[in-house]
Q: What sequence folds into this?
C-alpha cells in the first residue's frame, strides 16, 4: 500500500519488465495486454482499470466491465475507436465534419479518385496504417482490412486534449498544432498554443468537446483535427488516453493531462488546466541502432526553459520514440526556434 | 538501466522497505544509514552519492570520499552541519550574523540569563532538540550535549533555498516565510514569497548565499533565517539537502529544488528557478493514531490551485509528517487564506 500524488497507488500490466512504468508502480505484472488471465489478475488488484494504449484486449475488458469492474474509458468506446472505420462512422452519425469516406474497393479506384487516402481499420500507430496514394500502383497500397477516404489538402493539423468526468463534466486544454516529420510521417513537434486565430481556436475546442461527448468518454482524450485550406475543421481521429500532443501540459499547465486522466477515471473532481506559458514539445526519435546513448544533454540542460523526458528504452532504433523535450518561451514561435536549435545537438542514438 | 527526467537513474538506501523512495528507484537497498557495509554497497552502484537527511553515517561517507567516491554535499560540510555548535561557529568565523552563544553551563545560568535558548548539538529535527527556557527549573532543560544561545525575539522566520554547483555557480530561490505550529513547534506553513519588502528579501537572499558559500556546499541548501523585531537578519541554521521550506517549488517554480539538487550533485548546469506564482505549502501533520486515512480529499481536489503530496506512510501518529499540500494563488496572503480553509476539512488521521 503506497500513496502518491492524489493519494493513489498503481499496479501496471506491461509485456516488458523494463517498461517505463516499472519503477513508478507498486507492482508490475508482466504479460500481454491481450492475455485474459493477466488482465483479470490486474483487475483483481485495483479499484479502477484504465489503459495508456489502444491495442489492448478489448473483449476481455468488456467482459470485466459487464462483471462489475470499473474500466474507463469504457471498452465499448475503445472497441469503436480501435476501428478507424467505425470511429469515423460515429462522427458522421453525430453530424461531426470528417474527410468523407470513398465507398470503393481498391480494385474499383480510378485515376479520377487520386490522390486518395487509404487507412488500415485497426492497429495503426505513429504514421503506420495510413497511406496517401498518388497512383493506382497496387504495390503502394496497404494490405489487410482498409478503407478509403477523400484526400483533403490541409493547412494545419491541430489537436485538443479534453478531459471528461463520470458525470459528464469536461475541461479542455489549449488547441495545439502538430508538425510532422515528412519522412517518417510521425508527429515530431507540438506547438502550444497553435498559430491560429482565437476564433478558430474556439471552434476547434468546441468541435473536440463535441467529439468526446459523442463517444461519452470518461478520461482524457486526444482529439486530432484537420484545418483545411478553406478554413474548415474536420475531425481526424481520437485517442482514448493521454496523448503525445498533450505532453506539453507537464511543463505549461498547472494540472497536466495525466493528472486529469487519473482524476476522471477515479471519479475525482476535474481540474482546470491552468495553462500558463506557451511551449513546444519535440519527440526525440532515435537516430541510430544499438544501446541507447544521449548526446548533447549537458548543453541542452544549460538552456533556460528546457525540460527533458527520457522513456528509459535500452535499445535505440531509427525513428523510435526515445523520449521528448519541452521548451517554454514567451510565444510558441520563439519556443519552436529554440527547439530547432536544440535538435541540432541533442540526439538519442545507439552505441 | 533506466533513465528518467535529466536522464538519471537512482539507487536508494533506507531502513524502511516501504519508504517513499521505494517505488521511484531502480533499486532499493534496505539498511541503516549508519551501516558502513550498506553505504559501501550503495557507493559501488552509483556514480555520485547524495543524501536527503543529515542523520547519516558521516564517518563512512568521509572515508568513501577519501577513497575517491563522489559525495555531495561533501561529508566535511555535513560533519559541521550535523553539530549545531560547530555550524554556528562556522558562521561566526565567516562574519555572518547569528544569535550569540551564551558560554555558560546549565548550572551557571542565573535568572538574568532568562529567557534563553538551549539546543542539542546533534540529532535535532522538527522542533526536537530546541528549548526556550523561561525558568531555571532543570526539569525543563534538554539533556545530553547541548549549548545555549541568546533568546532573540523575532518577528518572522524566513528561509531561502540556494543551489550551488561544483564550480561554485549558484541559483537562489525566492525568500519564503515559515509559520510554526505553536504547540508542536514544527513548521507547518510556508509562504512564498515572504511578506517582506523587496529590500529585505534582497538582504535575505544575499545572506543565504553567503552562508552557502561559507560552507562551500555543492547541492541544494535550505537556509533558515530570523528576522528580528529590529529588522536585523540572523542565520539560524542550514540543511544540506532539499528542504521542507522548498517544497513549494514543485508547484510554483519551473525548476524545483529537487531538480537543481540533482543537477548540482551530478555536475550538470544549474537552472534558474523560474518562480511564476505565489504559493503556500502546508504540512499535513497526523491528527490521530492507526492505519493512515485521508479525509476531505475530494473536496480539496475540487479546489483550483490545490496540489497534494502524500508520503505513503502506512501508520499515522499525531504530529507525524504524513504529506503536504500546496495552494497557488495571486498572492501568498490569498493562498494562506485558502490554505486555512482547506485545513478545516483535509485531515490525515488513523483508523
A:
Amino acid at each position: 500500500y503506497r500513496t502518491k500524488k492524489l493519494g493513489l497507488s498503481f499496479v501496471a500490466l506491461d509485456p516488458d519488465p523494463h517498461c517505463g512504468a516499472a519503477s513508478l508502480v507498486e507492482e508490475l505484472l508482466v504479460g500481454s495486454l491481450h492475455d485474459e488471465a493477466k488482465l483479470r489478475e490486474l483487475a483483481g488488484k485495483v479499484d479502477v482499470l484504465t489503459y495508456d494504449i489502444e491495442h489492448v484486449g478489448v473483449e476481455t475488458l468488456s467482459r470485466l466491465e459487464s462483471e462489475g469492474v470499473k474500466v474507463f474509458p469504457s471498452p465499448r468506446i475503445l472497441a469503436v475507436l480501435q476501428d478507424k472505420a467505425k470511429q469515423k462512422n460515429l462522427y458522421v452519425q453525430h453530424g461531426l465534419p470528417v474527410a468523407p469516406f470513398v465507398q470503393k474497393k481498391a480494385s474499383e479506384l480510378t485515376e479520377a479518385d487520386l490522390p486518395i487516402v487509404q487507412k488500415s481499420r485497426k492497429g495503426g500507430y505513429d504514421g503506420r496504417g495510413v497511406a496517401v496514394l498518388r497512383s493506382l500502383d497496387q504495390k503502394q497500397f496497404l494490405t489487410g482490412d482498409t478503407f478509403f477516404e477523400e484526400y483533403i489538402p490541409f493547412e494545419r493539423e491541430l489537436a485538443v486534449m479534453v478531459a471528461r468526468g463520470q458525470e459528464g463534466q469536461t475541461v479542455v486544454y489549449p488547441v495545439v498544432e502538430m508538425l510532422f516529420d515528412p519522412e517518417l510521417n510521425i508527429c515530431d513537434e507540438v506547438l502550444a498554443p497553435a498559430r491560429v486565430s482565437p476564433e478558430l481556436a474556439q471552434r476547434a475546442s468546441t468541435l473536440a468537446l463535441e467529439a468526446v461527448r459523442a463517444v461519452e468518454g470518461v478520461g482524457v482524450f486526444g482529439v486530432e483535427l484537420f484545418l483545411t485550406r478553406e478554413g474548415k475543421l474536420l475531425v481526424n481521429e481520437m485517442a482514448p488516453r493521454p496523448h503525445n500532443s498533450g505532453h506539453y501540459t507537464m511543463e505549461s499547465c498547472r494540472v497536466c493531462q495525466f493528472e486529469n486522466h487519473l482524476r476522471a477515471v477515479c471519479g475525482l473532481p476535474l481540474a482546470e488546466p491552468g495553462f500558463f506559458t506557451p511551449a513546444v514539445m519535440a519527440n526525440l526519435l532515435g537516430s541510430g541502432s544499438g544501446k541507447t546513448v544521449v548526446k548533447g544533454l549537458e548543453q541542452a540542460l544549460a538552456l533556460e526553459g528546457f525540460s527533458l523526458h527520457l522513456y528509459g528504452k535500452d535499445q535505440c532504433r531509427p525513428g523510435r520514440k526515445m523520449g521528448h523535450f519541452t521548451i517554454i518561451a514567451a510565444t510558441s514561435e520563439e519556443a519552436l526556434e529554440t527547439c530547432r536549435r536544440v535538435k541540432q545537438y541533442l540526439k538519442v542514438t545507439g552505441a
Chain B touches chain A at residues 1-7, 9, 18, 22-26, 251, 254, 263, 268-269, 271-272, 274, 276-277, 292, 294, 297-298, 301-302, 304-305, 307-312, 314, 323, 328 (CB under 8 Å). Chain B has a mean pLDDT of 93. The first strand of chain B starts at residue 11 and ends at 14.
